[in-house]
Amino acid sequence: MQLPGEKIVGLAKFFLGVGIPGDAKDFFNQIDALACLEDNRFSVPLILSLPSTVISLTKNEPLKVKVSTVLGSKAPALSVKLAQALSSGSKGSSVINNQELKFDADTATYFLDSFPKNFDVGKYTFVFEILVDESANEKAYITEAQTKVPIAATGAITIENAEIAVLDSDVGSVESQKKLDLTKDEAVSLSANHLQKLRLSFQLTTPLGHVFKPHQSFLKLKHESQVEHIFLVKTSGKKSELVLDFLGLVEKLYYLSGKYEIQLTIGDASMENSLLSNIGHIDLELPERPEKAARPPLQPTDPYSRYGPKAEISHIFRVPEKLPAKQLSLVFLGLIVLPFIGFLIGLTRLGVNIKSFPSSVGAATSALLFHGGIGAVLLLYVLFWLDLFTTLKALSLLGVFLLFVGHRTLSHLAAASNKLKSA
Questions:
Q1: Domains: count for the chain
Q2: What does the H/E/C string look like for 326-362?
Q3: Which one of 206, 260, 261, 373 counts the least CB within 10 Å of its CB?
């Protein structure tokens, strides 16, 4: 099946552009398809690629182009020509025409080391043409008739004539005006009421002196209550300007009087010196908020504030109660022990017989454990704070323990009694 060269190159770009599949089988099929395009005798596609699509005019970076097969093999003898460089801001006009690129054999790179004087900051579409020397090649190589690549030319943008002013709403006269250096933070202090206006203006120019219109240009007013308002700075003619009429913004500002921080943001993909400048603050005096007017929205809390330092806890501990003297406590302890001593003396006076207490080590140990178990059961009466289930669990364990050691003790006593009777 014969396919046009454009479709074969398009198929190769498709396989290269889908990235690396997540499945191993799909990845194998992708490599296998590229290998089929690489190793065939009829039509081997050549791919043009750029190491970088961003050119810095400040650093005088050259334009670099590489041509290879789909798997990165070295391309045959050929020439690369920059047919056109179309600017996005112009209507079909090209700043570069039919410029042949030089070849560096060490890096296998085609490059253009200098640009024409009218090549300025902006976005372009470069149109390349590849001419293959077919007489010097055994294989048939195919390329696109023209390869279009988007290019961004970046540079330092000059910021001039920046100023901020407070105007009277009626006649538009300037009440106060400040010159600004937007390349660094300022500490401008202004004041205004709802019958006045705030004007911010500046000029942006490219290295060739052309008017530059940034992709993003915003002025932010941030109230001391953290309520923020963002306004778009528009570029008209040679000047970027924003005029805020506070009389028409009182509802948007939620009638919040007080201090507003002023911050300007200017950014663009072609602007190497994009900025975020803190200009200063303005004290606004707005009328009181009507009852039916909208209230400012609640500001979200910082989720990381919970990990910050907490307020110091001031706590006064209770004054400890007065304790009795040490000697009095010892006397009271002795009075508690006296009844137990009297109990032992009473047992002796009554002639309690402990002659049958086992004398062997094993039997004596069982007897002591048996009496200790009975004492533990009596101790459960003292532990009144235990719940019923805990008490029953402890009592069941003690019961099994007493059954075991009590049986051994009684067995020893029965055996000793039988010996006495038989004697």
A1: 4
A2: HHHHHHHHHHHHHHHHHHHHHHHHHCCCCCCCCCCHH
A3: 261
